[in-house]
Design goal:
This protein is mainly alpha-helical. About 60% of the residues lie in helices and about 0% in strands. Helix 2 packs across helix 3 (about 30-35).
């Protein structure tokens, strides 16, 4: 099963964004964002919602609970 960090990386690359871009979006350092993609840390729910909204995906898909990517 693909997890949150891997899906973040997929979404980031689809939009041609860098880890620096994503770190700025989330208001964290690049190193902190790298840890998010590597699955070493969790993020606050408000950031999870912001990411899902930004990429227009469901939160369940984003965290690996569903294979249905689109929001309902």
């Amino acid at each position: 099963m693909v997890g949150f960090g891997e899906r973040m990386k997929i979404l980031r690359k689809e939009k041609n964004l860098t880890q620096v871009n994503m770190a700025k979006f989330l208001g964290c350092t690049e190193h902190h964002y790298q840890k998010i993609e590597y699955g070493k840390i969790n993020i606050p729910s408000k950031d999870l919602v912001a990411i899902a909204d930004y990429f227009d995906v469901s939160i369940d898909w984003l965290v690996g609970r569903s294979e249905i990517r689109e929001r309902r």
